[in-house]
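Researcher: I'd like a structural prediction for the single chain below. Treat it as a standalone chain; there are no partners to consider.
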Amino acid sequence: MGVGVVQGDERVPARRVFGLAVPALGVLAVEPLYVLVDTAVVGHLGALPLAGLAIGGLVLAQIAFQLTFLSYGTTARASRLYGAGRRADAVAEGVQATWLALAVGVLLLVLGEVFAGPITSVLTGNAEVADAAARWLRIALFGAPLILVTAAGNGWMRGVQDTARPLRYVLLGNALSAVLCPVLVFGAGWGLAGSAVANVAAQLVAASLFLRALVTERVSLRPVPAKMLAQLALGRDLVVRGLAFQACFVSAAAVAARTSTSAVGAHQVVLQLWFFVAMALDSLAIAAQSLVGAALGAGEERRARGLANQVARYGLVFGTGLGLLFAALSWVLPRAFTPDAGVLAEIPHAWWFFVALQPAAGVLFAFDGVLFGAGDAAFLRNSSVFAAVLGFLPLVWLSLALGWGLAGIWTGLTAFMVLRLGTALVRIRSGRWAVTGAVHA
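Model: Treating it as a single chain, here is the predicted structure.
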């Protein structure tokens, strides 16, 4: 991977990039870190509750991921307005995104309560695991509107280059939840349900703080349908992109569940580590998104193109370091999540794919941030669908048919990442993403 992928000068000091990236890293890492804590706590209840958490948690995570336009799309629009000197208009994008979050979140809560059982049954093929997952999910879904409000809040604050307040808000909520989880699971004797209640508590605190922040901005809180429709136009492409990811990760969980209870538990451990590391790498993408959007909004195409080079180099170094770290922890870290011998025996079949992918992931996520900041949603949609259809999905379902197990599932993930990286590199080199102006959707 060469570091000079586009022509342009690096005119953004490293301290500016990392000044945004480090607090963003905290925000991005807190939620998966809580899930890792939750996984470690529930893992000590046994393989069945861990498998239930794996499936229920996957459904909730995919709901949130499917609506990433509430954060990433809002940042893309708000950052361009901020770069054009229109801060109040940038915050107003957050108001409309929050209204969308509440409406969609309530709808998801209602639908989820009705269909939690059938969904988990389809995913697992195991009645005991499906029942455990559905019980967890029905409680955790009360946090769905709150999760989406938090996403919208993160979106507009990143757009105005404020990543410090979101860190405080999310830390406060999840610190409370991390304390509550073992207390409710073991102390109160609620078992798996205790982890779901703790999850909702975290989301309630964080969402309340983001709502208060909007009120203190003193902008109109009135819903404006035209602006919400404009956000949905950008969101449409990001939703399709999210569906491609959802198809991949749901298929992987379904195949793991049909392999064995130990396999799905092992997949849960490594996948949650993957999500945690992905969020850490994505901190550079958040900084790139905010800075690239502001540069393009201000008409500074050369600066935006230079940032693509800059964050790609940072991502490569960061990803390589993480890969080396997790390689060194391969014999220690899995035991922090579960003492189950069957699960521990399955983990290495996924672990080394996870380690080897980190450098490529660092560069890819940096490019994703650049393209998100540019509002290049159509390309992000097309490249993700292409990689899913030609890479991940054929291999993951062959794994089920041919009995390849976790190694086959993670081979599919590797193909997915390699194809996405290749298409992103071509797009960045072309420069066609660097369209200037206050709004590009």
